[in-house]
Amino acid sequence: MRPIPESVSKTFYIETFGCQMNVHDSEKVRGLLEQRGYSRVKSADEAGLVLYNTCSIRDKAERKVFARLSQIKRRSAGKTVGVLGCVAQHNGAEIFERAPHVDFVCGSASYNALPGILDRVEAGESRVAGLELDTDETFDVPRVDRVRAYTAYITIIEGCDKACTYCVVPFTRGPERSRSSASVMREAAHLQELGYTEITLLGQTVNSYSDPSPAGWSFARLLDEIGRLPRIRRVRFTTSHPSDFTPDIVEAIDRNESLCDWVHLPVQSGSTSVLRAMRRTYSRDDYMRCVAMIKAAARRIELSTDIIVGFPGETESDFQQTLGLLDEVEYASVFSFKYSARKGTVAAGMPQIPEAVKGRRLIELQQRQREIQIRRNAELIGRTEEVLVEGWRKRFGQWIGRTTQNRVLNFADPEGLATGRDLRGTYCQARVTAAGPNSLVGELASPSARAAFQGLRVLQ
Ligand code: SAH
Ligand code: SF4
Ligand code: F3S
Hints:
The protein has three domains: about 10-130, Methylthiotransferase, N-terminal domain (Rossmann fold, 3-Layer(aba) Sandwich), CATH 3.40.50; about 150-380, pyruvate-formate lyase- activating enzyme, CATH 3.80.30.20; about 385-445, CATH 2.40.50.140.
């Protein structure tokens, strides 16, 4: 047992790795800690309690966590160190062997145990582990300390019931469990009261949502109802699984202007035989049918995707099919990764592709997609788009905005700058004047009525 010095015991620092689900879990953990009387500080050095919310999707992500743990080791005297998230769930108590200064671990599928773990840690206990895979609980807390003031995440489904042969998520996040529609609607309405206007629904397979309550709402119904809340102007959702992407989702987007014109639809590979080896449950043709359905929507819905190159057995011809798919779909953006063998997964036992081949394919794929984005973004020059203003780029003197199609559009407001008006959180019309592969540049066409109504704050 190691008593925590009083002066630092009620301060915490949390660092987050990985996907949006982890970002949002950290927001919930912060809410939980603040409720227990902790206050957040800006660095690990100042904190009594240091937490890492970890990701184990690829080997590199996991290595980063252990590198961070060895850095904190030298400075951990008098501190309590906790490992949360997917590495905690996946590696479990083994973390105590590799990093003996860690006091507790709590996995992503075990957050309901966190208050009990904190009780024990606060009592001076160390090597406390919460690693049960909670099969029917979701991580809901009364207080969430959100990172941003205008746009908010809501988890609607946790875990994953798919069994992609490369993926650790079913092990790290447990089986799929959906929240009741009433609970989701309560949170959405509360966010609206707090002034949030954009909501992103989260889940590893968000569109596999299945309301466990007698109301029995479909995912499309849930989208529709949230989009109908009067002060919610934008609803996004991520990540969608192609096999569960039903036509009623597109119909809901068609009907409801608040549902954004953007769908993240990971394909992973353009080759049916690789998809089969990945156990993705769809073929290239199935995927392309889904894309065609989305592209036939009344408004133009932009697509983004995730791709893995160098999956075991991927031949040059398989890879060429993935490149061909990029040309056919013309995604607005692509997240691409070299396949990384993960402990306990089926694909880790398959014959592996050399690193050099994976590296070359990744570069080739990214180059091809870059050309597509340069061309497609250039087509937007001259158009006026509505953006939600998310921040200010001081160095460039530009506001950072995001379009409904999830493109970043940065723009100057010379006139407003003279008056010091702050556009963050408002919706503006911006005219696109230049385009790069990853973002657009524009100029303010008109700030929204809402911005004027709000009474604009003065820039810091
Ligand atoms: N649930 C989502 C994605 C979860 S992980 C889905 O099904 O699409 C995010 C992305 O990481 C995946 O889409 C995949 O492209 C990538 N990924 C997952 N496991 C990986 C591995 N072992 N090696 C490389 N990339 C991986
Ligand atoms: Fe992983 Fe597949 Fe589940 Fe996505 S659907 S989280 S890739 S197992
Ligand atoms: Fe990583 Fe866990 Fe998300 S493994 S990608 S943080 S679900």
